[in-house]
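input
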Amino acid sequence: MTDIALRYEPSRLAFDAFFNGPDFATDDGLYTAVLISLFTDRRANPDDVIPDGTNDPRGWWGDAFATVENDRIGSRLWLLKRSKITAEVLRKAKDYAEEALSWLIEDGVAGSVVVTTEKQDSHIIAIGVVITRPSGDAFKHSYIWSAYDLAA
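output
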């Protein structure tokens, strides 16, 4: 599977596509797929509490036209914005990350996905991901998620 590669731009606190000469750089691994799965906003479930007090469940509009029932893109990590990082929030972050990456197993891209979460600071969660492909090859990476709304 080849994707347009994304990379983190620390000065902008954002992910962006980049170029390899005149063409978009590509990623044949799982890095970009995992970034999109974890750091785009999945639609909130009907019983989720929206952290900004609105009724906006976010999510990608294309999910309304999914060819597979309940197929969703992204994660619900955004629901934890402004949360104090407690054991319960770490558990929810782990659950949300596992939910976001479950498609890898369902689609046969991975044989297993293991997610760990750890408090790094008063507002930072480290998310560790180990994806083992059916061939036995492992993809390991760590991601940082902030409970602060950096856009505000």
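quick obs: Residues 3-146 form a domain with the Nuclear Transport Factor 2; Chain: A, fold (CATH 3.10.450).
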